[in-house]
Design brief:
Radius of gyration: 21 Å
Strand content: 15-25%
Number of strands: 11
Low-confidence stretches: 6-36
Shape: globular
Number of helices: 14
Distance between the termini: 31 Å
Strand order of the largest sheet: 2-1-3-10-4
């Protein structure tokens, strides 16, 4: 059975949803100057879209492309206002409000959806995909559709898969070329039991730490390393204090563009088809600019002195073998799905 993302006081949730829904309704009936340019027609609907990433981040750029396409395809009948930079809350808060109808559309990591349905833990497993091409064949095919359908009845509608890049280990000590090189290192992890288990399975020490504290912790030696994608490695300036990065791609955690079920139910079948198509087109756009940004960041940081290590195929097998206990701990009920993913060519 699908669950709510966060369990807190029902009265508080209801009040929050009512406030946010009233805000959305007010936009529809009384459009403000901030939403419409001079001479622009008044839309039939004005919807909100939330993303916690900065305004120039690929996922936010994808959101803006989505809004642009919807505006064009509906000939100005539907306007979507994109709020970035966490203006409408952190990712968990955003996902919760989409469920309750307080926010109309959003982009969220599947990490926020594991409380809705634990099956989504499968898509967070370490070394799940052979490469990026394998991941998109899985997500754009029948398996990806199956996961989208798992959200039915949860208060949200899945529109499209967004890219969040591959996550790699980086550290202050030395190149990580073998499993032995990461052992006993203190590696920062987000507050994720699965990611902590991955780090521990590799023989390192998992250190849960707020994202904003990572730079200082690396600089002072409180931690030896961390893990993230290329854009975040640059944006937070971690490369300045942790110049060794190993491209192991231990996780490729996709993200979903969502619509609130409450919003979806208000739309005609024709508008639903338009919005679904625009979501898929915006995903293609987002993936392209994410890939470009990753390459640009990599080129810049190599010039800045970062030392990049690529694991050999044999060593990648050793890394993956080391974390097999994580598969059994978190996804023992979904091993058949894991096997299906492995068989996708």
């Amino acid at each position: 059975m699908n669950k709510r993302i966060i369990k807190i006081g029902g009265a508080v949730l209801l009040a929050g949803a009512v406030i946010m829904a009233s805000f959305s309704f007010f936009q529809k009936e009384n459009p403000s100057d901030s939403l419409f340019s001079s001479g622009e027609q008044t839309p039939e609907y004005v919807f909100t879209y939330a993303d916690n990433q900065p305004d120039d981040y690929p996922t936010t750029e994808g959101a803006k492309k989505f809004a642009e396409l919807v505006w064009e395809r509906t000939e100005g009948r539907i306007k979507i206002k994109v709020f970035s930079g966490g203006e409408m809350g952190n990712e968990n808060e955003i996902a919760e409000q989409v469920q309750y109808g307080g926010i109309d559309f959003a982009r969220v990591s599947i990490m926020t959806l594991t409380d809705v349905n634990p099956k989504f833990n499968v898509l967070q497993l370490p070394y799940l995909y052979r490469d990026e091409t394998h991941m998109w064949k899985v997500l754009d095919g029948a398996i990806g559709d199956e996961f989208m359908n798992e959200l039915k009845g949860s208060g949200v509608v899945a529109l499209s898969w967004y890219d969040a890049g591959a996550r790699h280990f980086y550290n202050t000590k030395r190149p990580i070329e073998r499993v032995e090189d990461i052992r006993k290192m203190r590696i920062r992890v987000a507050k994720s039991d699965m990611m902590a288990a991955v780090v521990e399975a590799l023989g390192a020490k998992a250190v849960p730490l707020a994202y904003s504290d990572v730079y200082a912790a690396l600089e002072t030696g409180y931690i030896d390393g961390a893990e993230n994608n290329w854009p975040s490695y640059e944006t937070m300036n971690h490369y300045e204090v942790a110049k060794y990065i190993t491209l192991d791609a231990h996780s490729r955690i996709p993200e979903l563009q969502l619509a609130s079920q409450a919003t979806w139910d208000r739309l005609s079948e024709k508008d639903r088809e338009i919005i679904k198509q625009c979501g898929e087109e915006s995903a293609t756009y987002e993936r392209q600019i994410f890939t470009e940004r990753e390459q640009n960041v990599r080129d810049r940081l190599i010039k800045a002195g970062c030392i990049v290590t690529e694991l050999s195929p044999a060593e990648l097998v050793r890394f993956r073998s080391a974390v097999m206990t994580v598969y059994q701990t978190y996804c023992k009920d979904y091993i058949d799905v894991v096997n299906q993913i492995a068989q996708v060519q």
